[in-house]
UniProtKB/TrEMBL annotation:
Organism: Aliidongia dinghuensis
Domain of life assignment: Bacteria
TonB-dependent receptor-like beta-barrel domain: residues covered: 249-696
PROSITE patterns: TONB_DEPENDENT_REC_3
InterPro entries, A to Z: Beta-barrel_TonB, Beta-barrel_TonB_sf, Plug_dom, Plug_dom_sf, TonB-dep_rcpt-like, TonB_sidphr_rcpt
Keyword check for Nucleotide-binding: no
Domain TonB-dependent receptor plug: 78-176
Family matches, as Pfam families: Plug, TonB_dep_Rec_b-barrel
GO MF entry, a single one: signaling receptor activity
Keywords: Cell outer membrane, Ion transport, Membrane, Receptor, Signal, TonB box, Transmembrane, Transmembrane beta strand, Transport
NCBIfam families noted in UniProt: TonB-siderophor (TIGR01783)
Name used for this protein in its record: Ligand-gated channel
Amino acid sequence: MRALDSAESSLRRPSFLGLSQPALAATTVCMTSAATLSGAFAQTVTASQDPPQGDGKAEQITVTGVRALVNDKLPTGLQDAPQSINVIDQQLLKDQGTTRLQDALKNVPGITFNSGEGAARGDTVNLRGFSAFNDFFLDGIRDAAVYTRDSFDLDQVEVLKGPSAVLFGRGSTGGVINQVSKAPTLAPLYAGTVSAGTNSLFRGTADVNEPLTATSAIRLNAMAESSDVADRDIAHNERWGVAPSYALGLGTPTTLTFSYLHQEENNVPDFGIPFINGQPAPVSRSSFYGLTSDQNTARDDIATIRVRHEFSRALSVSDTLRLASYMFGYRFNSPNFGATAPTATTPLSAIRVGHDEPSSQGAQTNLTNQTDVTARFATGPVDHIVTVGAEFSRQTSNIGRFNNPFNKNNNFIPMTPLLSPDPNEVAPPEGIASQQNTTAYSSAGYLTDTIQIGPYVDVIGGVRYDRFAASYNQYTLATATTLHLDHVDHETSPRAAIVIKPDDTQSYYFSYGTSFDPSAEALTLTTKTAGLSPVEAKTYEVGGKTSWLGGMFNVTGALFHTEVDNAQTNDPDNPTITTLAGDQRVRGFELGINGYITPAWEIYAGYTYLDAKTIRSGTAAFVGKVLQNVARNSGSLFTEYNINDDWMVGGGANWVGHRFADFGEQANLPGYVTFNAVASYQLNDNVKLQVNATNLLDKKYYDAAYYTSAAENHVVPGAGRTVIFSTAFTF
């Protein structure tokens, strides 16, 4: 076998992407100027400051538009969907001053954040107790988790909780996170924002929508940002992006949409501080144990074509074709104690911290085609909504990994004092260690039938068949050897539910769903995992959804129980072998409210309780312990009040209870509550001024963590108090 296309000649030290400050500033100014000057020829569009009448903002949460998930996957809509769904709409994103998807997800209780090593980049979260790293979707198509998702092109965010394999295929043990992109409309829009913040933030966005004919329109969204992290030394973020889209046939039975997303980022990543004796090290929040030369870069290009045709109100078909390329490079230093961790008696002044420096560069490509056919018909007194679909994808991953100058016994970067870390040490050159190539093919067919027995009862059944095949090659330069592994999975995923609807304002449901996680889900294999079957999970959920005040105010609740019966674990008789002998269980409940209490007062709030435990494991110390990075209690609140047509004030809180960063309950993450506030003033029909403050009381808390042992771990402090001033232009 060839040495994977001459790895040594094709791979060098990471050639990281760059974004200069002058270029960033110029891009932002140009975007803002374009949005402002467009007012000279734009039709004036004035957004109402009052809640919608009759079908209030709470009703607007229902997903609409040419790329809506609910239209294709859940044809009965949110109210009658038999699972918990959180929707964060564009107005909430704007009011909170959201710039990243990760910030938007703080509105969803039951989500916690992870900090990874190596392949774990981008947005890494737990949802309902399980990792959702591979469960991100963009307009219903799987999205690679290797970049920081900015909110500039988001219309809304949908979080579907619980296993959803019948809808999305592999993954989704805790749920899925779907991003809905902004799409062209027939209403002219010329908008932009300029923001500056106490975290050295400088950000500009533009959103221009131009109807071209009575049935076509073009839309362009753009963004550029440079920012630090409040009270964290060295850490820095730079990114920019553009997202043009073009739609034909708007308002007609046939709609054709072309969209493209390009985003680049060049960050100094933050891997926080070490744990010492099971607690975050007692050091300043600003302490930084990486190097100023650390980098994490990404360049993403996502092109999508979607066609949808309605033959009649009873029959529609849609097809989505996407080609996505995700390029990345990273070189970072995370704290590590090497072979020996400090003990409880080690003086802090004597502790020195090493630099663990994994580095790689590579690319992932996804080619996906998804077809859905929805038919509505009757068989006697029973109505049916049947969705039949097929999905095919090809994914490739090509990663070059570089030698890590750090190991447990030798540290080629001088260790730094715990109490006075030096970020200016020089990292030695890194030679090429290996190249890893993976190609995965996925094919699936699925069918769901919503049987409507009169106006009061829906019975829902569905099944999906998936075939997932992966071929993995790893070439190691030191030994000039190639490891080749193949793996194929065949999985059938059922779903069943019943929905009771006493009237149009309430529904109650019981549902059963499954999920599976192949061993090659992350596009990698090892000799320990290549022979393993998928990890499987099942969830039972009962819940209710009610609407009040003429549809202006919604209350939801759910009880759920999720079981993973064959989690990967070490063989207790031979720890070098991985087996499917682990059992995990998460049970809990959640409550949510959203909508208008009065025409001027809006609220969005939720609470989640999770009882998450390891039931069986090859590591005896894990049995009966809480699952990694799961908070028993979590909640969020955001409310705003329109004082008059011009002034709005609001605020909220995020609560995350105590967590353990590991499966053995050795690393503690204290619970915390942070408070946020917002105020805005509508200066005139075209200009709005807004100020957002996050972590208002400057709480010291820990946002994310990684823990494999007392010597190898880190915990990332959350950002300190941050105030952002924004000016929004709309014409």
